[in-house]
Amino acid sequence: MHIAVVDDESDLRETIVFALTKEGYETRAYKNGLEAWRSFKNRLPDLVLLDVTMPEMDGLELCRKLRTVSETLPILFLSSRDEEIDRILGLELGGDDYMCKPFSIRELIVKIKVLFRRYSARKVENRSDHRIEHGLLKLDIDKFLAFWKENVIDLTVTEFNILRFLVESPGIVRTRDALIEQIYPNGTYVSERTIDTHIKRLRKKIEFMDADFEEIETVYGLGYRYREFPS
Fold it and tell me: Residue 150, exposed/middle/buried by CB under 10 A (0-12, 13-18, 19+)?
């Protein structure tokens, strides 16, 4: 699991990173919200530890931005301010939990584990509902329906399956061979150009509804990916 530590106190950042690394977590630290936000455009973490008061972009603003791209990303607020209004505001903006400084590192690790358990449970629940939502895109797996900005996209079964495979792992590059294997699992011979054609038609159908659609990215020499950080 990848945890982001966003806090302007360098000593605290180092302490948390050291403790979480010992627990086996991949950890990256950022000194303010703006630095973290720029990095998250390349890759969203699996959990964010977020200070409230920081220069350039504070934790509350970063939380607002994160919730526009992921409703389920676990966010744990950290703050030296122990006023009730700050705790309430942080949770209303989409924070999952709150800790006031100074705090026990052991307690922090326990809270992180609890949040990951909740997150795993939510993912299982979402799968059981047979729906996928990412940014402005929604997929109803049972009905083979795709929606962009709440409008139905008229897709073939193959186009739907390609879109589903890409959006199930946003940010991950899927090679043409991987797409062929996933979409045509019975050994049917399909050329890579066929995948390119399906992708082209898929893009055109959504671009017809929204000229600014750029979520399906071409990674030249590799394949395609659905943008992890929705525009």
Answer: exposed
Nearest to 115 by CA among 65, 46, 53, 175: 46
What tokens were used for 86? 């700050």
For the stretch 90-114, pLDDT in tens is 677 778 888 888 889 999 999 998 8
Q: What is the C-alpha to C-alpha distance for residues 203 and 163, in angstroms, rounded to an integer?
A: 10
DSSP 134: E
DSSP result, 27-47 = EEEESSHHHHHHHHTT---SE
Sorted by where each starts, the structural domains of the chain and their CATH numbers stand as 2-127 (3.40.50.2300), 131-226 (1.10.10.10)
Distance CA 19, CA 73 (A): 21
Flag the least confident range among 60-64, 78-82, 204-208. Answer: 78-82
Question: C-alpha distances in angstroms, 58 versus 8, 100, 214?
Answer: 10, 16, 29
Segment 148-160, tens digit of pLDDT: 988 999 988 889 9
- Alpha-carbon gap, residue 210 to 172, rounded angstroms: 23
Q: Cα(64)–Cα(85) distance, rounded to whole angstroms?
A: 17
Is pTM, for the whole model, over 0.70? no
pLDDT at 85 exceeding the cut of 70:
no
First CA to last CA distance, the chain: 24
- The torsion defined by the Cα of 165, 166, 167 and 170, in degrees rounded to 10, comes to 130
